[in-house]
Design goal:
252 residues, alpha/beta, Rossmann fold, eight-stranded mixed β-sheet, 9 helices, binds NADP nicotinamide-adenine-dinucleotide phosphate
Length: 252
C-alpha cells in the first residue's frame, strides 16, 4: 500500500526526513510546504513545493517539522485536511496539535543539521497517536526508515528529551569550551577527537557512572586547584567548579 505524506517545514529535521522518505519505494512525498520559497530549494525539481498554507493537497499523513512554538499555529491550517497530523518534537505534548482525533507524534531521537543528511537506520523513532489505526500507520512509516520504533506517551517522550539535553546539548557545549580553551592557547582541538569518541564508545560496555574518570573522580585536589588557577575566564571557572563538585558528590 502506498502511503502519501506532506512534509511541512524546511529546516534540519524536514530536510533529513525528506531525504529519507524520498528514497522509500512505498511512500510518496506528495509535497513539501514552507513559508519561505528560498528555503524549499532542497525539494525543488524532486517533488511539488508550496508556500501557501491555504492550498493543501490531500495526503494520508501531514508531518509538521516546524519549530516547537509554531506547531499549534501551523496545525490549525491542517485541521480540515482529513489526514493524520503529526509533529516531530521531543518536548511537545501530543495535544498541542489540537483537540482532534487524528493527531500524532513522529519524534526521531537524534541531532539533525540541515547541512548533514544522515541515515535513519539506527535512529529510534518515538511514536504516539490519539487512535490505534493512526498509531499503526505511524509504525509503518517509522519501520520504513528505522530498525528501532518505540511507542511512548508524551511524558515518556519529555523525559527522554530532558535526558537528551544533558547528554547531547550540554555535552556539545562542553566541546565548545574545550575548543575555546585550545584556541586561546594555540593547541589543536582535533587532538581531543579520539578522546571524545572513546567516551561515547565506552557506553557499549559500561554505564556512564562506571566510565567516569578525571581529577574530580580521583579526588586529586592539587590538579583541580592548578586547573582553576590556569582558567582565566570566570564563567569557565564556575562551570569547572560546579561540575567537579557534582562528580565528587556522586563518587564520594
Ligand atoms: N534539530 C534536531 O536535532 C531535532 C531533533 C528531533 C526533533 N526536532 C524537532 O523538529 C522540529 C523542527 O526542528 P528543526 O531543528 O528542524 O528546526 P529549524 O531547522 O529551526 O526549522 C524550523 C522550521 O519551522 C519553520 N517555521 C517556524 N515558524 C513557523 C511558522 N510560524 N509558520 C510556518 N513555518 C514555521 C521554519 O520556517 P522558515 O524556514 O520560514 O523559518 C523552518 O522551516 C522541532 O519541533 C524540534 O523540536 C529537532
Amino acid at each position: 500500500m502506498m502511503i502519501t505524506i506532506v512534509l511541512v517545514g524546511t529546516g534540519n529535521v524536514a530536510q533529513n526526513l525528506f531525504q529519507a522518505f524520498y528514497n522509500v519505494a512505498d511512500i510518496e512525498v506528495k509535497q513539501v510546504i514552507g513559508r519561505n520559497e528560498n528555503h524549499l530549494s532542497f525539494a525543488k525539481n524532486k517533488v511539488s513545493i508550496n508556500t501557501d498554507f491555504n492550498q493543501i493537497p490531500t495526503a494520508d499523513v501531514y508531518i509538521l517539522a516546524v519549530s516547537d512554538d509554531a506547531i499549534a499555529l501551523v496545525a490549525e491550517k491542517f485541521k480540515n485536511s482529513g489526514g493524520l497530523i503529526v509533529h516531530t518534537s521531543g518536548g511537545t505534548a501530543l495535544e498541542v496539535i489540537g483537540n482532534q482525533n487524528r493527531a500524532g507524534v513522529f519524534y526521531p531521537l537524534q541531532t539533525f543539521t540541515k547541512g548533514k543528511l544522515i541515515s535513519f537506520d539506527d535512529i529510534p523513532i518515538c511514536l504516539e497517536a490519539t487512535n490505534k489505526t493512526d498509531l499503526h500507520l505511524l509504525q509503518i512509516l517509522g519501520k520504513s526508515l528505522s530498525k528501532t520504533v518505540e511507542l511512548l506517551n508524551s511524558e515518556q517522550r519529555r523525559t527522554l528529551h530532558i535526558a537528551a539535553v544533558f547528554v547531547n546539548n550540554f555535552t556539545n557545549y562542553m566541546y565548545t569550551i574545550g575548543e575555546e580553551i585550545c584556541a586561546e592557547h594555540m593547541v589543536d582541538f582535533k587532538l581531543l577527537h579520539p578522546l571524545i569518541k572513546e567516551t561515547a564508545a565506552k557506553l557499549d560496555d559500561l554505564s556512564p557512572k562506571e566510565s567516569q574518570t578525571g581529577p574530580a573522580k580521583r579526588g586529586d585536589q592539587k590538579t583541580l586547584q592548578n586547573h582553576l588557577k590556569f582558567i582565566e575566564n570566570k564563567h569557565q571557572r564556575e562551570l569547572y567548579t560546579l561540575l567537579s563538585n557534582a562528580i565528587k558528590c556522586k563518587h564520594g
